[in-house]
Amino acid sequence: MAMAPVIKLVLGSIAFAIFWVLAVFPSVPFLPIGRTAGSLFGAMLMVIFQVITPEHAYAAIDLPILGLLFGTMVVSIYLERADMFQYLGTLLSWRSRGPKDLLLRVCLVSAVSSALFTNDTSCVVLTEFVLKIARQKNLPPHPFLLALATSANIGSSATPIGNPQNLVIAVQSKIPFWEFLLGVFPAMIVGITVNALLLLAMYWRLLSDHKEEEEEEEEEENAVSEAVVEEDVQSHRFSPATLPHLSSFRSEDSSLRMDPETLRNRAVSAAENEITNRNASESQGESSNVNNMFQIKKWRRVFWKSSVYLITLGMLISLVMGLNMSWTAITAALALVVLDFKDARPSLEKVSYSLLIFFCGMFITVDGFNKTGIPTALWDLMEPYAKIDQPKGIAVLAVVILVLSNVASNVPTVLLLGARVAASAAGGEEEKKAWLMLAWVSTVAGNLTLLGSAANLIVCEQARRAVSHGYTLTFTKHFKFGLPSTLIVTAIGLLLIN
């Protein structure tokens, strides 16, 4: 592609630079408008500067990607309402055998949930669970927060619905869900294992020094159980005054010695007792009706939750079978809305529309920057050294993707390099491998720094805002682990991509 006229080249570069600054640093002092408004601002400048026409700007918006993103967000919202993530949080602490076991569980649960429900959603829901468990067990939070964030990024690489850049790659490359999963899954499994071992190696001593106060907990549990047993015994203890044969004998003896006034009083009290018993029976009937209603609501809830899980499972099976991904996700989302049988506004209000708008602005901005010819010129210089049929070329390409993903963010990197990397491949299997390599490296690159992915920022922000047990995950603590983990996991994964 030839370079655009100088005026368009300069103006297009300015518009893209403004978009990049606001996307990477959303709270810059001179224009603190955030990422979403920043992407729209960049798109608007591309049109105003006449780098692209309004018609081209609308055409640049990739509706299938937006549809897939919207559908998966709605499904995740209903799964959260169906307590799916609460069950995952409970699984973290269920019969835990110490800090190291808990760390491995966080890695596994984070990876699996991210592959199925996107890394951002998993981090939003699981961060507070992980932080709360760490605080309860008197453990340092940052190893577990690092395990959650890094495993979420690595795990999300396995499926097209795991993260936004994979959505883009799956739609643009037209690689079926099943082939995408098979191509990246071995790298993901080994990557999660290596990442967990690195966490254990780096924080082994720290986790060993923090022991749980198990004896006190056991004493409290024993005390509670003893109290329950004692109460249970007392409630079933018999008193001689209430034994049936003794009471009958005493009533016969006393009736022989009663005068008429006493008999009259006994008759009145018997009538009062009858009225009291009738009222008691009526109240028991009312309480039984309440219990019946409670049971009905309980079983309705169980049926609804089971239906949500079945619809989600059906969506995943449909994706594996190769059906259209965006319409499959939208269909599943609408099926859940209809199944809920109530106003869907409260659930739909939880959808991150700001993320969808951010994508719209980013599509337009990146398309405008592509039309300046700068990305093509830079790729032409680099392409001879980045051939994926040679180990040296793979290493060069991986470094370029790694750096760009942390400088320009992973989704813009995929939009800028995707078609060019695929075009440089020999075609067929080599082209598919090029797309999968791009998905793997751009995703794992998010573990390099705290700013490398949205999942990292979500974990950091959720942990900082947590009520009563907040914690700040610093850039230095993340980078200290993120650097070796990213380099080692990326290199090992590239050997397994096929």
TrEMBL record:
Residues passing through the membrane, by range: 6-25, 32-52, 58-79, 180-204, 353-374, 394-423, 435-459, 479-497
UniProt-listed InterPro entries: Cit_transptr-like_dom (IPR004680)
Keyword match Plastid: no
Compartment(s) where it occurs, according to its Swiss-Prot or TrEMBL record: Cell membrane
Annotated Gene Ontology cellular component terms: plasma membrane
Source superkingdom: Eukaryota
UniProt keyword terms in alphabetical order: Cell membrane, Membrane, Transmembrane, Transmembrane helix, Transport
UniProt key word Transmembrane: yes
All copies of domain Citrate transporter-like, residue ranges: 26-445
GO biological process: transmembrane transport
Membrane association type: Multi-pass membrane protein
The name this protein goes by in its record: Citrate transporter-like domain-containing protein
